[in-house]
Amino acid sequence: MPDEVSRRQFAKLAGLSAAGMASPVSSVEAKPASPPRSAGGFPQNFVWGTATSSYQVEGAVNEDGRGASIWDKFVRIPGKIEDGTTGDHANEHYHRYKEDIALVRELGCKAYRFSVAWPRVFPDGDGKPNPKGLDFYNRLVDELLKNGIEPWLTLYHWDLPQSLQDRFGGWRSTETCKIFGDYAAYVAEHLTDRVKNVFTLNESGRFVYFGYGIGIDAPGLTLPQAEVNQIRHNSALAHGLAVQAVRAHGRRGTRVGPAENIDACIPAIDTPENVRAAEIALRELNAGYLNVIMTGRYTDAFLKYAGADAPKYTEADLKIISSPVDFVGVNIYSPQHYIVASDQGAGFMPLPIPKSFPHMNSDWLRVGPETIYWVPKLAAKIWKTNAIYISENGASGDDQVTQDGKIYDTDRIMYLRNYLAQLQRATAEGVPVRGYFLWSLMDNFEWVYGLNKRFGLYHVNFDTQVRTPKLSASFYRNVIAKNAAGA
User: Fold this and answer.
1) Per-residue pLDDT averaged across 73-99, rounded?
2) In this structure, how many other beta carbons lie within 10 angstroms of the beta carbon of residue 358?
3) 442 has which bridge partners?
4) Cβ-Cβ contacts under 8 Å for 413 (sequence gap 6 or more)
5) What is the per-residue burial (b if ≥16 Cβ within 10 Å, else e) of 450-480?
6) DSSP states of 146-213 as a string?
7) Quick check: 33 pLDDT over 60?
8) What is the residue-averaged pLDDT of the chain?
9) What is the largest CA-CA distance in the chain?
10) In the predicted model, is pLDDT for residue 12 greater than 70?
11) Pairs from 79-82 (Cβ < 8 Å, separation ≥ 24)
């Protein structure tokens, strides 16, 4: 797999570039109320959590009536997974969930983000539900609550039922969107008596482009740009239908929002003109998903550049897509673009990233702590939201097990310390970040990298399934206990 293609890389929407953009967007000031703060730390009641996803940890892919997902098929295509592994067993979380929830409790986390495997609940995506699939998530939620941990549920983290791919072309068809809405309604009806926060789709920017544009992720297709843009529109439509389903079938008070790997734009130098340019860039380079969700329209620049490749849609589509959300989840790892002001095009210019730019042991995972300061700050201004959650942030590390059996992952601690300090800077200025979910609770199946890349606070021996806390687990426990980054 090419180094320049990353796990979190966000496609330039329709190949959108600064030079091809239209006029700058208007600036909207957001003045969210700042919650009470701990002395020198994060706001009181800040949500500290960690996260996993179903295919990456559950295993048990052929048990208790679970249907096949597109990843079950994709991992068996020779050469697609770097180390040749699959998610068939992964962390065996399906059977070890109580042990894993105990790890969340040991960290002091009060929240845990997990995803429901759609084919575990509906083996064919639609039709008759599988009661044993729902039973697992009932047990998981009950165990979390028993341990004082708030469940945060993600409806879709990439494991599309293979049946829907075979019958409708997956996200190429609005039939899949409608079926997703029905699935969301079922999950909301049965779990929101205990689950109060629901993410819709995780990282449209990844699974659309990588899965349907360049064929690196499941289902492994390489479609023309017009179709990719249409699929991205469909994913936004699916989000909107899920929001409506949760509203209609969930318990009163259930909150819902997206979780997107936002195309992160940062001013290269903190001057008014460069900050303004970064604001424009953040909106325009996220025009095909987050912006249309939050505003109900595609920007003129997006439509102009896409031209004949622009998605086909109706006003009814846009109304569904922009169904009001309660929060915005953003997955933040690396700076995608450092921005300077320009008198050309839309008023901004992305700068090239030097080869010498520091990164973690994944080449794509550049270390830019200021990303987690600027992105929420600009996002709150652009989209007038008063509730942002960092739905993912974390780092892969070398994670060598020493002779004493421990993992001294000071590289991960360095990354987390610097990012959390910048996040604390944001909240101190009143940026409405309400919580943070560290990716990941434990090492897991890392998609196209297989088991090669480790993001966990807990090391997993995939032969024995033994979980061992890394030094970063102690670091994060201390951050949570102090509610402060300088831990």
Assistant:
1) 98
2) 9
3) 458
4) 471, 472, 475
5) bbebbbbbbbbebeebebbbbebbebbbebb
6) HTT-EEEEEEESS--BHHHHHHH-GGGSHHHHHHHHHHHHHHHHHHTTT--EEEEEE-HHHHHIIIII
7) no
8) 93
9) 63
10) no
11) 80/220, 80/448, 81/448, 81/449, 81/450, 82/1, 82/448, 82/449, 82/450, 82/452
Count of beta carbons in the 10 Å neighbourhood of residue 63: 14
Q: Token digits for 292? A: 């249309």
Residue (of 180, 331, 156) closest to 259 by Cα position: 331
Residue 266 has which token pair?
A: 């940062």
Active site positions, annotated: 203, 392
Per the structure block, which two tokens stand in for 454?
A: 């480790």
Q: Tell me the residue type at 242.
A: A
Do the beta carbons of residue 368 and residue 335 sit within 8 Å? Answer: yes
SS3 content of the chain, % helix, strand, coil (to 5): 40, 15, 45
| Average confidence (pLDDT) over 295-314 | 97
Burial of 223 (0-12, 13-18, 19+ CB in 10 A): middle
* Per-residue three-class SS string for 409-432: CHHHHHHHHHHHHHHHHHHHCCCC
Q: Domain residues of the chain, as ranges?
A: 13-482
Q: Are 207 and 217 in contact (CB under 8 A)?
A: yes
Distance CA 128, CA 246 (A): 20
User: Confidence band (pLDDT; 50, 70, 90) for 249?
Assistant: very high
For the entire predicted model, the pTM comes to: 0.94
88, amino acid identity: D
pLDDT for 39? 59
| Average pLDDT, integer, range 236-250 | 99
Tokens of 115: 């995803």
Architecture of domain 13-482: Alpha-Beta Barrel (3.20)
